[in-house]
Structure formats: structure tokens, C-alpha cells
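We give the chain.
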Amino acid sequence: MSIDKNVYSLYCITFVSTIFTYVIACQVLVTNAGIERDIIDVGWPAAAAVAFATDVGLWVIPIALIVNIVLLIPGVTKTLNVDIWNFWHYAFTGSLVTAATGSLPLGLATGCSCIYALSR
């Protein structure tokens, strides 16, 4: 299935103009309500990018798959978790521990314990 370039361009223009309209509406709402915006919420995508960019993030995918397979063999869990994108939670938690303690093995152990706890 292919999309005509003109139709694709129209979709893109519509998307950008819709987002622009929402941004303007939010700014007007904030101005009229007298709200101050001192904090920016970047949401989970930024946290996930940071988590996967750390040393723990490098190891969390293979470790999570290995731990899950090890838990499948004795029947501790019945599900193979292959949703790799959601492994950022383990990487983020392990990265926080690594940053706080300076110990990569402790951060990896924390990530593994999260994997184990959430796989049951």
C-alpha cells in the first residue's frame, strides 16, 4: 500500500497546523488564567532515552531476556516478555542506583531485581 506524496504532504501539513493550534490555545489559556510555567514536563520519552543511554541501559535488554528465559524454565513465570521498549523502567531504576552509588554491578543487580519482581 503506497500513499500518494500529495496526500502525505496534506497529512503532514494538517498535523503540524493542529499541533500549532493546540500550542497557541494552551498559551492563551495560561496567559488568561494567570498561571506561571516554571517547570517543563518532558514526560517518559526523555526518561526512556536517558535510561537506554546509560551503562545499565546497554546491558538491561540481554539481561532481561536471559532472566525471563531462566524464570520460564522452572515455571516461575508463564510469559516470555519481549516488549523491549518497556525495559527502560529497569534501566532507569538501575541507572539511578549506579548514579547514586557509583557501582555498575549494584545498578545491574537492581535492574535484575526489578525484572524478577515484575516477571512474577
DSSP finds five helices and no strands in the chain. The mean pLDDT is 81. The helical segments are 5-33, 43-52, 55-72, 88-101, 104-119. Residues 94 and 111 are 5 Å apart (CA to CA).
